[in-house]
Amino acid sequence: MAAAVRCFLMVAVGLAPLLAGAAGGKLSTRFYDSKCPSLQSVVRSATAQAVAAEPRMGASILRLFFHDCFVNGCDASILLDDTASFTGEKNAGPNANSVRGYDVIDAIKAQVEASCSGVVSCADIVALAARDSVNLLGGPTWTVQLGRRDALNASQSAANSNLPGPGSSLATLITMFGNKGLSPRDMTALSGAHTIGHARCTTFHDRIYNDANINASFAALRQQTCPQSSGTGGDATLAPIDVSTPTWFDTTYFENLANKQGLFHSDQELYNGGSQDVLVRVYMRNPDIFALDFAKAMGKMGSLMPSADTPTEIRLDCKKIN
């Protein structure tokens, strides 16, 4: 296993050929070469500082990117604060208690602005920070296409309807990812992001008390800090999504699924006698294949763009429009 992990860590994927022409050719690996040549080193350094201070933050930034891209494209709409006349996405159901790291993106943006004022979008910063978070926690790296712009609006209703929940069935997951142009293989690879991070008791309560396809010892372990009766003080208690290595990006998430130790109902749906069982076993035994597929799927997800008529800008402050 040690040799497999070492090999996994060395995977690097160049996605320029894969995404050529994505989003109408607007994205480029060299978009900031002349306008902000220090961008990637600034983002990497700031992300590394945040992850070193709190390894869980790497998973949070990755989740933030996913929740942004699945709602009208990767446009940093999730970063906008509510105002007296504007309701953003931060307080949508899937985001309110599960998405964090906004302060880290703000800190990175401030450092980028100090180097290259008014040039780099918040959306591109999130994409780079998500890539770097994965790699800093032991996962693969890949080339990020750049040139995104920041939305002037957000959609709480789209955030409430476009993001799959922890109780989703396999059919629902396939459909919701398919709606974004992502294949079932992409979906299963991207689900591997749950090899890092933590979740609140409320998101897996039904799973550990009501699901039949769950390891009894694992259910008992999670029940110790997630009481059966809600409102008893444990609803917000955190548990690692990957029971084995929650701060290391590896393939134990898939091993957990094979052992019926998926924390979410939606996780275990990937290995429950359905169409993704074989792929879960492939990833479990072949870290390099998972790394390659994950990087490719992240590139595809990162190419999701808002519609052509969406007004955009380069925000100076990620929390508000200029």
From TrEMBL:
The keyword Transmembrane helix does not apply. Gene3D superfamilies: 1.10.520.10, Peroxidase, domain 2. Keywords: Calcium, Disulfide bond, Glycoprotein, Heme, Hydrogen peroxide, Iron, Metal-binding, Oxidoreductase, Peroxidase, Pyrrolidone carboxylic acid, Secreted, Signal. Ca(2+) 1 binds at D68, V71, G73, D75, S77, E89. Substrate binds at P164. It catalyses: 2 a phenolic donor + H2O2 = 2 a phenolic radical donor + 2 H2O. Its main location: secreted. Residues 26-322 form the Plant heme peroxidase family profile domain. Ca(2+) 2 binds at T195, D242, T245, D250. Removal of H(2)O(2), oxidation of toxic reductants, biosynthesis and degradation of lignin, suberization, auxin catabolism, response to environmental stresses such as wounding, pathogen attack and oxidative stress. This is Peroxidase. It comes from Triticum turgidum subsp. durum.
